[in-house]
């Protein structure tokens, strides 16, 4: 499981409906998390990433140090499904996405991921799995961190 975490001051997601993008959700401050799932991901992968994101201290304290978690900062998370995090560009110029999870399983894990973050007391807003989305991200810092459960769990 892969999560691209971006610190944000303001972000939103719009969903394409009848040829137009319509606003679905927005956050003022917090994280935008782009989440990719593969078929070998388990609850251990999910729990490790949820725990890491919930405790990640990248928000500035009163001294300007990155020392606060999303909960300490009273931030929100905009969670977006992102199968392209599993793009393989080793051969040719067109990415292959065969390493990405099958849609039914990936959606199940995406929904479970959102629920687990909420269980940690974090306000979570989501896009729609598999939809054509327009994601606006005002990346603060910029701070962008790639998390991979395989690396965190040393698989």
From TrEMBL:
<dbReference type="Pfam" id="PF02580">
    <property type="entry name" value="Tyr_Deacylase"/>
</dbReference>
<dbReference type="GO" id="GO:0005737">
    <property type="term" value="C:cytoplasm"/>
</dbReference>
<dbReference type="GO" id="GO:0051500">
    <property type="term" value="F:D-tyrosyl-tRNA(Tyr) deacylase activity"/>
</dbReference>
<comment type="subunit">
    <text>Homodimer.</text>
</comment>
<dbReference type="GO" id="GO:0019478">
    <property type="term" value="P:D-amino acid catabolic process"/>
</dbReference>
<comment type="function">
    <text>An aminoacyl-tRNA editing enzyme that deacylates mischarged D-aminoacyl-tRNAs. Also deacylates mischarged glycyl-tRNA(Ala), protecting cells against glycine mischarging by AlaRS. Acts via tRNA-based rather than protein-based catalysis; rejects L-amino acids rather than detecting D-amino acids in the active site. By recycling D-aminoacyl-tRNA to D-amino acids and free tRNA molecules, this enzyme counteracts the toxicity associated with the formation of D-aminoacyl-tRNA entities in vivo and helps enforce protein L-homochirality.</text>
</comment>
<keyword id="KW-0378">Hydrolase</keyword>
<dbReference type="InterPro" id="IPR003732">
    <property type="entry name" value="Daa-tRNA_deacyls_DTD"/>
</dbReference>
<keyword id="KW-0694">RNA-binding</keyword>
<protein>
    <recommendedName>
        <fullName>D-aminoacyl-tRNA deacylase</fullName>
        <ecNumber>3.1.1.96</ecNumber>
        <ecNumber>3.1.1.-</ecNumber>
    </recommendedName>
</protein>
<keyword id="KW-0963">Cytoplasm</keyword>
<keyword id="KW-0820">tRNA-binding</keyword>
<dbReference type="InterPro" id="IPR023509">
    <property type="entry name" value="DTD-like_sf"/>
</dbReference>
<feature type="short sequence motif" description="Gly-cisPro motif, important for rejection of L-amino acids">
    <location>
        <begin position="141"/>
        <end position="142"/>
    </location>
</feature>
<dbReference type="GO" id="GO:0000049">
    <property type="term" value="F:tRNA binding"/>
</dbReference>
<dbReference type="GO" id="GO:0106026">
    <property type="term" value="F:Gly-tRNA(Ala) deacylase activity"/>
</dbReference>
<comment type="similarity">
    <text>Belongs to the DTD family.</text>
</comment>
<dbReference type="GO" id="GO:0043908">
    <property type="term" value="F:Ser(Gly)-tRNA(Ala) hydrolase activity"/>
</dbReference>
